[in-house]
């Protein structure tokens, strides 16, 4: 698909907006907007939660069954997730638009 089709009048603004909004997760636009979070599916988030819960359960079991004279165990660290506070923001990422640009703005952009 050629973006010039929009400029030539062969592609409507609505169709262009629908195509952009429903791009696949692995598209360059999604990766630019959301960074690593674009690569994480719901299943990935659920698996990370399962790993965190299992590590916490093992830590609790080991803490309860340890000798009282030993030093306490450090709690487990959660699996790092995209968009967490430790992650540095991407200065090149484009913020998602709240409203689609008007036809005139798009025409100026492609002119």
Structural description of this entry:
By secondary structure, this protein is mainly α. 47% of the residues lie in helices and 0% in strands. The chain starts with a helix and ends with a helix.
Mass-distribution shape = rod-shaped
Helix content: 40-55%
Give the total of beta strands: 0
Radius of gyration: 23 Å
SS element count, helices: 5
Mean pLDDT: 81
The helix-and-strand class reads: mainly alpha
Major sheet size, sense and barrel closure: none
Low-confidence stretches: none
N-to-C CA distance: 18 Å
Proportion of beta-strand residues: under 5%
Secondary-structure element pattern, one letter each:
HHHHH
Write the layout of secondary structure elements.
Layout lengths: L3 H5 L4 H9 L6 H7 L7 H23 L38 H8 L1
Could you write a compact summary of the structure shown?
By secondary structure, this protein is an all-alpha fold. It has helices at residues 4-8, 13-21, 28-34, 42-64, 103-110.
């Amino acid at each position: 698909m050629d973006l010039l089709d929009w400029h030539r009048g062969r592609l409507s603004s609505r169709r262009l907006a629908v195509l952009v909004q429903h791009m696949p997760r692995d598209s360059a636009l999604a990766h630019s907007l959301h960074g690593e979070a674009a690569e994480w599916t719901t299943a990935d988030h659920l698996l990370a939660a399962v790993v965190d819960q299992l590590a916490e359960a093992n830590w609790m079991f080991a803490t309860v069954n340890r000798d009282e004279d030993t030093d306490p165990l450090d709690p487990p660290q959660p699996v790092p997730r995209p968009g967490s506070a430790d992650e540095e923001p991407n200065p090149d990422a484009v913020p998602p638009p709240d409203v689609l640009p008007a036809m005139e703005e798009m025409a100026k952009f492609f002119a």
